[in-house]
Amino acid sequence: MTDPESVRTTVAQILAEHGHVDVLVNSAGRSIRRATINSVDRAHDYQRTMAVNYFGAVYLILELLPHMISRKSGHVVNVSSIGVQVRGPRFAAYVASKSALEAFSDITAAETMSDHVTFTNIHMPLTRTRMIEPTEGYDNAMALSVEKAGQIVVRAIVERPRRIDTPLGTLAQFGQFLSPRIAAAAQHQGYLLFPESAAAEGRDADGADIVPPVEVDVAEVDTPRGRLAATKDLSKDISTAAVSPLFGISGDQGLRRLARKTLNRLPGINW
């Protein structure tokens, strides 16, 4: 998807076989967790991340946009990240690429409104996929299962909101707006508290050097550690306490659904 010609050929083949495309979901991604000071000689970190997270998605949108406009129907779902709202340290390459795609999509959505081509940006919280495996600190972190993340994407396709946030992401954005200095100080404390991962420093878990540092694209979990983490009971973690009741993913019925829709009427709330 990082090659425009390959994307053009793929889209042409899909249209030839299926006639039309109703929904495009941009979910492919590359994440790199490394402090900027440790990336001064690694320009390729930023190039590779932008190639997948931004340019790959843009190529697909550019190929499908004329088709969707001609049909007066189409929807694009971007699986972005809560990092765009929180802007956590060590994720400059990743968050910048996701932010760029959001800006591109918001502007394009304003241009295609009368053509009934719509966009949704999902600020997806941490999800238990292979992409987070190189960071040891995430082994026991509270994270969404891939099934719950998939349900969020389904909601974006069905309801077509402009964006889907989490309470934590919204809180972070409000904090940055109301008190940017305090927010920056909190982010710096996070930077000091959570050091560089062994993978980012070019070491394995035992401290031995590895070449090159591990950088993993999003893929299905296919390691013993990943499979174990993916099958953990996460019913009591933050994904349920702070996400599920308001996202409308599992058990979105009755009072829970009413509460979510009522809260979403408040300015700045998109849960």
Notable characteristics:
alpha/beta, 271 residues, 4-stranded parallel beta sheet, globular, 50% helix
**What proportion of the residues form beta strands (DSSP E)?**
5-15%
Alpha-beta classification: alpha/beta
**Overall morphology:** globular
**Spans with pLDDT under 50 lasting ≥5 residues?**
209-245
Biggest sheet statistics: 4 strands, parallel
Topology:
Blueprint: H1 4-18, E1 23-26, H2 43-71, E2 74-79, H3 83-86, H4 92-111, E3 117-122, H5 146-159, E4 163-164, H6 167-178, H7 180-193, H8 224-230, H9 238-247, H10 254-263
Parallel strand pairs: 1-2, 2-3, 3-4
Helix pairs in contact: 1-2, 2-4, 6-7
What can you see in these coordinates?
The structure is a single chain. The protein has helices at residues 4-18, 43-71, 83-86, 92-111, 146-159, 167-178, 180-193, 224-230, 238-247, 254-263, and strands spanning 23-26, 74-79, 117-122, 163-164. By secondary structure, the chain is of the alpha/beta class. The protein has a four-stranded parallel sheet, with helices on both faces. α1 runs parallel beside α2 (43-71) and α6 (167-178) packs across α7. The longest helix is centred in the first third of the chain and has 29 residues, at 43-71.
Summarize the structure.
The chain is α/β, with parallel strands linked by helices and 271 residues long. The protein is 50% helix and 7% strand.
